[in-house]
């Protein structure tokens, strides 16, 4: 790794310099096909606008945007100017976005949201002491039209310098900022990228969004390094949207989550999917049953690679390979070292259950403003992923469970307490608990058990649903709401979540 890194050159500029600027970098719902040359110049225009606005190099910038080529332009342009992008889902509530803005000390924000939300968010964020301004960018459209002005020199950074902040939910429900270095961003391609083996002939389709670690790697880090093309999808994504994108754009690599794969057979038959261009499918973000992997391989006729990652390790660090034993989650990707450890931090013997620990070049530098959580998670020369696993003598890793009560919903980590707080504030609710249960496809879903304050509460369910829609992002809302007389407890009076899991299973 060189002493200093030019991220723009590493991801985009090298393709332009090599004479491949006419290759397509992104297929965008609004702009159509965007070449590497257009992306490069648009990012340069964005950087020039930051300079003209007097933005300080090194500042953090909130990128509140759905997946689009203009959002990627903002991210590349921030690196060009030496700023640090903080990708944020536009589907979070204003309260959640405001918290991340304040916690990250972001100096300004790039907004690509509907006009109504943009106005209210800009007003909210402008009230923060550290906040400078809001930017709405049309540089990519300008570059595509040939309006290319003088560009600044690209910023260079040391390998250990902060280059990206990604937010992940914590056990308390408060999001935590994960600090990634410039070197780590490049190392993803040297790790999982070696297994994925993208090249310029590939077209990638990811259902995970840019605002999450899995999606950011799928749609930015890995394809741009390889000079590949990526299809970006705006709005909500379900199996119907994915099936349409497969038919229309003919991607060669599909990166998705188990619940999308579970729904695909209901939309098209194996005969219909035989006309696709896929060579590989990736599943990650949540536990994927072996039966679902086999069914998806039969449906699509291509291998399904199972992956396990964590925001704290930037992307996938465990993946199925030829070395993986049947039924295993996978093996450590190149450069990563996986061990299973006890509560004392010592490595446990083969085939022993313990806490999964990852060491390697993509492990984050730590958390932002969370020293206690950082000491617990980033320890013993790496990071604890929050998973219980076991490792065989051959290096195959089997995921068993989470070490906490965190819900893993479609790849999103959600704290039960965050949902419970919203429900408990609803008038007429005496108590509640939220747990994870398996649905008919064997995938995790959130189930809320609600105890009414009065026995006869016919409108309580609708009141709870209304509160959840108002206060929580869509992916955080329970799939089921059950009204019960009481919650089970242990002999010591603590909530017996395991009994609720049994109840949900039955």
Automatic annotation (TrEMBL):
Q: Which organism is this protein's natural source?
A: Nocardia colli
Question: SUPFAM superfamilies under this entry?
Answer: Acetyl-CoA synthetase-like
Record's InterPro entries?
A: AMP-bd_C (IPR025110), AMP-bd_C_sf (IPR045851), AMP-binding_CS (IPR020845), AMP-dep_synth/lig_dom (IPR000873), ANL_N_sf (IPR042099)
One Pfam family from the UniProt entry? AMP-binding_C
- Asked if Ligase is a keyword of the record, the answer is yes
- The segment(s) forming the AMP-dependent synthetase/ligase domain are 15-368
Q: Single GO molecular-function term? A: acid-thiol ligase activity
Q: What is this protein called?
A: AMP-binding protein
């Amino acid at each position: 790794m060189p002493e200093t890194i030019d991220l723009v050159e590493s991801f985009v500029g090298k393709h332009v310099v090599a004479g491949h600027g006419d290759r397509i970098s992104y297929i965008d719902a609004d702009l159509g096909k965007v070449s590497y040359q257009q992306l490069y110049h648009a990012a340069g225009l964005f950087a020039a606008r930051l300079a003209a606005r007097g933005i300080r190099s090194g500042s953090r910038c909130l990128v509140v945007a759905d997946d689009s080529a203009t959002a990627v332009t903002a991210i590349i342009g921030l690196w060009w100017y030496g700023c640090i992008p903080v990708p944020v889902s536009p589907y979070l509530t204003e309260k959640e976005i405001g918290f991340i803005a304040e916690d990250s000390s972001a100096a300004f924000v790039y907004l690509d949201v509907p006009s109504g939300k943009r106005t209210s968010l800009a007003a909210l964020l402008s009230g923060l002491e550290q906040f400078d301004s809001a930017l709405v960018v049309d540089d990519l459209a300008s570059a595509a039209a040939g309006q290319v002005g003088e560009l600044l020199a690209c910023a260079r950074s040391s390998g250990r310098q902060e280059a990206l902040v990604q937010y992940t939910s914590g056990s308390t429900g408060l999001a935590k900022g994960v600090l990634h270095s410039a070197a780590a961003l490049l190392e993803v391609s040297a790790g999982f990228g070696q297994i994925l083996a993208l090249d310029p002939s590939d077209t990638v389709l990811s259902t995970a969004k840019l605002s999450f670690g899995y999606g950011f790697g799928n749609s930015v880090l890995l394809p741009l390094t390889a000079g590949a093309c990526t299809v970006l999808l705006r709005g909500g994504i379900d199996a119907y949207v994915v099936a349409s994108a497969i038919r229309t754009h003919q991607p060669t690599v599909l990166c998705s989550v188990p619940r999308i794969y579970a729904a695909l057979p209901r939309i098209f038959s194996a005969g219909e999917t035989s006309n696709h261009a896929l060579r590989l499918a990736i599943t990650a973000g949540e536990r994927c049953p072996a039966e679902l992997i086999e069914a998806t391989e039969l449906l699509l006729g291509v291998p399904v690679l199972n992956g396990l990652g964590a925001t704290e390790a930037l992307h996938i660090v465990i993946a199925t390979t030829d070395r993986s034993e049947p039924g295993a989650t996978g093996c450590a990707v190149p450069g990563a070292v996986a061990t299973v450890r006890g509560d004392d931090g010592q490595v446990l013997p083969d085939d022993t259950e313990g806490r999964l620990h990852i060491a390697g070049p993509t492990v984050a530098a730590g958390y932002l403003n969370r020293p206690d959580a950082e000491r617990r998670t980033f320890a013993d020369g790496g990071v604890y992923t929050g998973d219980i696993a076991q490792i065989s003598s051959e290096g195959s890793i089997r995921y068993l469970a989470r070490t906490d009560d965190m819900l893993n919903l479609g790849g999103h980590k959600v704290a039960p307490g965050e949902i419970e707080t919203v429900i408990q504030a609803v008038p007429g609710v005496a108590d509640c608990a939220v747990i994870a249960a398996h649905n008919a496809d064997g995938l995790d879903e959130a189930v809320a058990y609600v105890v009414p304050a009065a026995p006869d509460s016919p409108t309580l369910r609708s009141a709870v649903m209304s509160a959840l829609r108002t206060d929580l992002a869509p992916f955080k809302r329970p799939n089921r709401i059950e009204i019960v007389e009481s919650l089970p407890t242990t002999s010591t009076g603590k909530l017996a979540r395991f009994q609720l899991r049994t109840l949900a299973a039955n």
